[in-house]
Amino acid sequence: ELLCDVKSWWDSIYFMINHLWVLRQALDYFFMLPAQCDISNIKLEMMEWLILQDMELVLEISHLAQQGMSAESTPTLGAVVPAFEEFITHWQCL
Question: Which one of 14, 37, 60, 92 has the fewest beta carbons within 10 angstroms of its own beta carbon?
Fold first, then answer.
């Protein structure tokens, strides 16, 4: 399934990176095919995969915070402030 970056869905980048990891083996195989030799230069290198791994880790924290706050129909300040503090604490630990 093709995932798109959606401006109103701010954690869509997290899902796209996560999906790339799922498809990594298939992508590597695709770029090894002789018919793809003209685009093999855009295959992600190991360093780029490591950068994506770091980005996914950072974005996962914000994704989990957003999921926790959107679980309630009307988040209250008493629930949002502790969730935000936990979110900031996790980012500072990175």
Answer: 92
Residues whose CB is less than 8 angstroms from the CB of residue 16 and which lie 6 or more positions away in sequence, other chains included? 3, 5
Taking the C-alpha atoms of residue 17 and residue 11, their distance in angstroms, rounded to an integer, is: 10
pTM of the model: 0.70
3-state secondary structure of 6: strand
What contacts 30, CB < 8 A, 6 or more positions away? 36
Going 41 to 42 to 43 to 45, the CA torsion angle's sign is: positive
Provide the β-strand partners of residue 6: 9
Strand partners, 9: 6
Q: Is the dihedral of CA 55, 61, 67, 70 positive or negative?
A: negative
pLDDT, position 4: 63
